[in-house]
């Protein structure tokens, strides 16, 4: 019987040429190039991206869907495979570029530039990086000599990215337009508005105060009123009223001369802002139209409807009840029907709304 000591140890053998090839990652990849089908790391991208992704606008509009594909792909494979991705799927470079600019993958931007997949004369690269506030990408593109337009600073200001605005101001010559301060004001970015006011000469337009008022940014409204001379339009108070910003309506009424139009009370009533409706009624002379009661009725704002019926004479039209019925506002329908009957009994000179309702009912109570 053979003992354990009698068993010869197996002799190690050098791997065969085939084994050596298959175990060498670079050589194995080179072999796979000549095989039918696609490699695993390409499969997901081939399925996800077709020719429609060659449009930059299309990619931006669907950037969430693009990120849903590329984020896990990068997590699995990194960026080392990107040269071969570009080689096998040349149409994908637009999606890769746009995604890198939007999410701030500066290493991908560097690699795509090295692969000559980026066009330095295309200003959209700096525009996207600025719009999404990726200062490190903006710095990289600037260092690589990429072109830009004034839209880069405009969009950075719009989004409130002061570091990007400051960088473009200090390192680029394209400047900005009045859109920069207009859009920053509309979005409430006071720090950007102040920087542009103090460091740039483009200024703004009256739309800056209009937009700030419309969106309820009191600090911006006050700054523009005190520090700028462009003023605003009547739409500043109109839009502030439409959005229920009573504090801004009060401020504009007290400090500005542009006033408002009937659209102010009409839109405030339609949205149910009774406090704004009451203020305009008590302090302004523009009044409203039948759209005020019609809109309040349509949206079920009974308190506004009651106030307008008691304090105004513009009245409503048949649309008030029609739309209240369509929306299922039973309490509004009951009020309108009762108001008509009470008005017919109590006065020979009913408000205009009651006359309109008599016409609607064909003269019947």
UniProtKB/TrEMBL annotation:
Top-rank taxon of the source lineage equals Eukaryota
InterPro entries, per database record: Ankyrin_rpt (IPR002110), Ankyrin_rpt-contain_sf (IPR036770), SecEffector_AnkRepeat (IPR052050)
> Could you tell me what this protein is called?
Aste57867_24127 protein
Query: What's the source species for this entry?
Result: Aphanomyces stellatus
Gene name tied to this protein: Aste57867_24127
